[in-house]
Design a protein that fits this description.
By secondary structure, the protein is an alpha/beta fold. It is built from 11 helices and 16 strands. The strands form 4 sheets. The chain has a 6-stranded parallel β-sheet, with helices on both faces. Strands 9-8-12-13-14-16 form a 6-stranded mixed β-sheet, sandwiched between helices. Strand 8 (165-171), helix 7 and strand 9 form a beta-alpha-beta unit. Helix 3 (49-64) packs across helix 11 and helix 8 (208-221) packs across helix 9 (240-252).
């Protein structure tokens, strides 16, 4: 079983993990005070190449750190995550890490973990809890900053234009920290500039199919990209999956993305970078999926009964037409 898992890791980079790997992936583990470290990890699903890369990066980092990891795919359902976390508690893992689908509804299961003396690390998305001691710490992207960076690009890009500039926002999953903070950060910046106005905002659940659906329905109900007879000047999409879905529809309907409408996206998938290079996107704010190595450091720290920072952010960039793509390595997702 271990040999098979290692072979899977050697052949995969950031490709979609196989079902068998997601069910239970074990690697040779590290002794800690005379016993092994076992990490239980609950991922929200495999809805995008970004998510698959995030999962695979964590699995590979566990292998490198000699930590045994048990991985569960929640298939976009909080109930499945609650069940997985409770199974980790029963299994008596040393540390639990999970990517929360939504922000709320975790306190009871986290209390169970605390009573079992199992530290919990929140990954990628944040949660709201009545007791901060239930969580050892958070690691992932600074989604508030990502929203601010998207808006800062627009204020600079349109610095010489008087406006008005009308914005369509395609948000991520409702009640997720990523969607809430990207929206908040974006509004914190454009709220100071009256020439910008958000005239339409809808949740696309971070799915490419929903991005296609939202823009298709909008264009069918209105005059193409015109709302109340006035053009949509900007589309701000919370992730590349939804953005790529929007591009699919716009181009089929004779709209030239990048020329007829300015599009800003978040993530940094290779497909989005390619669209940026082709002039179809104007800005891509990076959301870095590769947090595995830092996560394993935090796992070792809490497994040895030490504290970790309340928040650990991964490094992220902003890509525009001015980016030197010649030195930008392939994204791998």
């Amino acid at each position: 079983m271990i040999a098979s898992a290692l072979m899977t890791l050697a052949l995969s980079a950031c490709r979609k993990p196989s079902a068998s790997v997601l069910r239970a992936h074990s690697v040779i583990n590290e002794e800690r005070d005379g016993r092994h470290i076992i990490l239980g990890f609950s991922q929200i699903g495999a809805e995008s190449s970004w998510r698959n890369c995030n999962t695979q990066d964590i699995i590979q980092a566990a292998q490198k750190a000699n930590i045994q990891i048990l991985v569960d795919d929640a298939q976009q359902k909080q109930a499945n995550q609650l069940k997985a976390i409770r199974s980790f508690i029963v299994y008596r893992v040393d540390v639990i890490a999970f990517v929360p689908i939504v922000e709320t509804g975790w306190d009871n299961v986290l209390r169970e973990a605390k009573e079992a003396h199992i530290p919990v690390i929140v990954v990628d998305r944040k949660i709201q809890t009545s007791d901060k001691s239930l969580v050892a710490g958070y690691i992932g992207e600074d989604t508030l900053s990502e929203g601010r960076k998207a808006a800062e690009f627009l204020t600079e890009y349109f610095a010489e234009k008087k406006g008005p500039l009308r914005i369509m926002e395609i948000r991520g999953t409702e009640n997720s920290s990523a969607a809430r903070e990207r929206s908040l950060g974006f509004r914190q910046v454009i709220g100071d500039d009256r020439k910008f106005s958000i005239v339409y905002s809808e949740s696309g659940d971070f799915l490419r199919s929903r991005g296609r659906e939202i823009i298709t329905q909008f264009m069918a109900k209105n005059d193409g990209l015109k709302l109340n007879g006035k053009n949509i000047d900007i589309i701000f999409s919370h992730n590349d999956g939804m953005t790529l879905g929007v591009l699919d529809v716009l181009e089929k309907n004779g709209v030239a993305p990048g020329a007829d409408v300015v599009i800003v996206s978040v993530d940094g998938e290779q497909s989005a970078i390619d669209a940026l290079k082709a002039g179809k996107l104007s800005c891509v704010v990076e959301c870095n999926p590769r947090c595995g190595e830092q996560l394993m450091y935090l796992v070792k720290t809490v497994a040895n009964k030490n504290t970790i920072p309340e928040q650990t952010f991964v490094q992220e960039s902003v890509f525009t037409a001015g980016t030197d793509f010649a030195i930008l390595p392939p994204r791998g997702y």
